[in-house]
Design goal:
Structural class: alpha+beta
Order of helices and strands: HEEEEEEHHEEEEEEH
Strand content: 35-45%
Length: 228
Amino acid sequence: MKPTNKTVHKPIINSLRLCALLAVCATSAVAQVGTAVISLKDTNGDPGSGTVVPGETFTLCVFLTSDQETFGLTYFLETLEPGCSGRFQIEGRNTTNSIYTDVTNSNSSILAPTNALLDPRTGSPSGAGGDLGANSFPLFAPPNIEQLVACFTIKDLGGPEAGFCTIQVALKGVTGRDANGDPYDLQTQNIATTNYRVEIVPEPSVPMLLCFAAAFLGAARRKGIAKC
């Protein structure tokens, strides 16, 4: 009996189904690579920006969110604008309430003058000593939950003029494991970041303070005369 067209094409149809299934599996495997976001926030007001007077310190915290489990990251802090290079310096690091406590470089290392200065990047020019990263291994941070990594005390050393400076995360990497338990290593192209904008407000000058004082005394004197 001569086979029908339906019988002849059945193996082809099955092959196409198999190819489609393999394609879906391949897509799922790629999706397991994961993505992450490293964000910078202060502890008051607008998390993406803040105001500082030259010579003051402020706190900047680093957070990590990933769609996969994570157990470590590497990152540096740097200033974006050329005029802000060398203006900020890390004076302390606090990992309280963070799962990432196994730091890559000790506090004494990252606080050394050559590593703590954002010039424009921590650890410039050699780099290695400015790595602020840490690990949580053997623990794993759960996915899709923002995790505190560390908080830094940063000092504005002052500069030629007031204005705006942007602090950002650089040379970043995240390690973890996917839903299948396989390890992964995210590089820059898979990691998004949020920057922190610092508005630098100049201190009042001595002549300006004297003007304020004179105006206050004048107002007080007029008030006293009026009472008489």
